[in-house]
Amino acid sequence: MLLEGGCHCGKIRYQLVPETPKVVECNCSICTKKGALHLRAQEGSFKVTQGDGEARLYQAGTKIAKHFFCPQCGTHIFANPKRAPLAFNVNAKTLDRFWELLPQWEKTYFDGRSWEPEGPVPVPSSTPFR
Ligand SMILES: [Zn+2]
Fold first, then answer.
1. What pTM did the predictor assign?
2. CATH code for position 33
3. Average pLDDT for 55-84
4. How remote is the CA of residue 69 from the centroid of ligand 1, in Å?
5. CA–CA separation, 106 and 108 (whole Å)
6. What family does the Swiss-Prot or TrEMBL record give for this protein (predicted)?
7. I need a labelling partner for 55 at 20 to 30 A (CA). Which of 15, 49, 71, 97 fits?
8. Ligand 1 centroid to 5 CA: how many Å?
9. Which domain holds residue 19?
10. Is the dihedral of CA 77, 14, 12, 56 positive or negative?
11. 123 within some domain
12. How far is the CA of 26 from the centre of ligand 1 (A)?
C-alpha cells in the first residue's frame, strides 16, 4: 500500500510503503514531546518526493537516532531510529487522510522511556502560573 504525506506547510512531501499496518506510540522523551506516532518503512520503501534535502536534523543523547523536521513549519516528519538506523519511522500523523487510515491499523506501545540509556530527561521544577 503506497501512502503519501507531508509537513503542514507542504514544503516537504514523501511516499512510503509501510512494513506492517501498525503504528507505535513511544513514551521516550523526544517522541512524547513531538507527539509522533510511528509507522515503520524499511530502507527503499520511503522517499522524499518534494523538498528533498530541505528537512533539518535534530539529534540528542547518543546521537544515533536522526530526527527530521520541516524548517519552515516545524512538523516532525520522519526519523531514522536508534534500533534500526537504516529504516524510517515516519510520523503517521503527517500522512494525507491520517484520520481515515488510523482505524485500519493496529496500535501498539513501545517503552522507549526505559530504553533511554541516560534515563528519563529531568523535569525542571516549575513555577505555577499566576
Ligand atoms: Zn513544512
1. 0.86
2. 2.170.150.70
3. 93
4. 8
5. 7
6. Belongs to the Gfa family.
7. 97
8. 11
9. 3-114
10. positive
11. no
12. 23
Ligand 1 centroid from CA 63, angstroms: 24
Ligand 1 center from residue 128 Cα (angstroms)? 33
Residue 128 domain-assigned? Answer: no
Q: pLDDT averaged over the chain?
A: 90
Contacts of 15 (CB under 8 A, 6+ apart): 2, 3, 4, 46, 47, 49
Report CA Rg, the chain: 15
Separation CA 30–CA 91 (nearest Å): 13
Ligand 1 centre and the CA of 25: distance in Å? 22
Q: Does the pLDDT value for residue 121 go beyond 70?
A: no
Give a yes or no: residue 104 inside a domain: yes
Number of domains in the chain: 1
Residue 130 within any structural domain of the chain: no
Measure 89 CA to ligand 1 centroid, in angstroms.
Answer: 18
State in Å: Cα 12 to ligand 1 middle. 6
- Return contacts of 98-106, CB within 8 angstroms, 24+ apart: 98/5, 101/3, 102/23, 104/21, 105/21, 105/22, 105/23, 105/39, 106/20, 106/21, 106/22, 106/23
